[in-house]
From TrEMBL:
Signal peptide as annotated in the record: none
Ranges for domain 4Fe-4S ferredoxin-type: 3-33, 55-86
Protein name per its UniProtKB record: Anaerobic glycerol-3-phosphate dehydrogenase subunit C
Domain of life: Bacteria
Pfam families, alphabetized: CCG (PF02754), Fer4_8 (PF13183)
Keyword Acyltransferase: no
Originating organism: Pseudodesulfovibrio hydrargyri
GO terms assigned for molecular function: 4 iron, 4 sulfur cluster binding; metal ion binding; oxidoreductase activity
PROSITE patterns: 4FE4S_FER_1, 4FE4S_FER_2, ACONITASE_2
Keywords: 4Fe-4S, Iron, Iron-sulfur, Metal-binding, Repeat
Keyword Iron (UniProt): yes
Amino acid sequence: MSENISQHVSHCILCGKCLQACPLLRATGREELGPRSKSDLCRVLAEDPDKLSETDAAKLAGLCLGCGRCREVCPQGQDVPGLVAGLRAAHPGFKSWLWKTWLTRARMLWSPSSKAAGLVPELFHTERLGPMLKMLAGMSGGPGLAPFMTPKSFPDTYRGEKLLLFAGCTANFVQGRWLMAALRLLDGLGAEVLPGDFTCCGSGLKGAGFADRSAAMAERNVAVWREAGRPRIAVFCATCLAGLRAYDCFESDGERSRWVDSLLPLSETMRGMEFVISDNVPERLGYHHPCHAGADDPDRDFLREALGDRLVAVTDKQCCGFGGVMRLAAPGLTEPVNRQCWEALRGADTVLSGCSACLAQLSATAPQGVAVGHWLETIG
């Protein structure tokens, strides 16, 4: 355990920036759940692994959203989500195993699970199971949003360019409409989409403590890119994009730089385009900024440019509360995080985002009458 933890521990200068950034601390007011407390405790464990019981260490490993906001602001480069992943690797309980099974068998489990969850009567939506059933049912997104933006014309920027498309597990297995919309956009742009058998980005497994399995996925995805001639890769999930950017399985620093430069947020291909807005456009639109999008969020910038003052609510510091493994380990602690997110989106009758995990969580927790969907669904 000490090896998994110590590689991420650095000296804390008590600046408090992580405390201001942590959505879990902000929503609960409990400093023991904040990044600094986890960092301090993990440093002690790195020096003396017997300081904490197996049960307590496993519990601590479950209490992190994995949003990475603390890592972004830490002047010392402290990686608290990495520390927690180390704890999870050292204490892989049943919930971690369940999460691993869910992610590695997405092709087989996601679609039937989503359909089955939607058939469970409300009577059986207990306090603990209800939110999970709603999230599973929401993965398929129901009928989806009706498109209300049509491109007037497409620029020639990408015409004739050969691209790979990284769709991600959600689009591949339960949200085929996203994949089809992305392909239509690339076709309109005149790009040639190359065949590429990508697997999961692996970020969910890495955060859950399954670094070896995540690394194997990274190696396969990089191999697909190499075999295709190292072209650009269009991506439309913010969390997938962050996971792909974090890969470190390259032959040289130069190849790693080329990989990062090749990753193209799909929304960037539409910057500067003009759209015809149809009469069925929702009156009040909101946008949820995914934690893993970082400060520079191309999806948000695209929507602000395309929709103007129709975008009435945009989250900034708020996390949706999805939390990965924490969604299973401590669902009660994710709820106040989610409530703060919806407070920031108050007034919107349709909420858009560009992260598959965020969309699953928001679809499951949306107030009555509020629709949720990927921004790709708005383009016809």
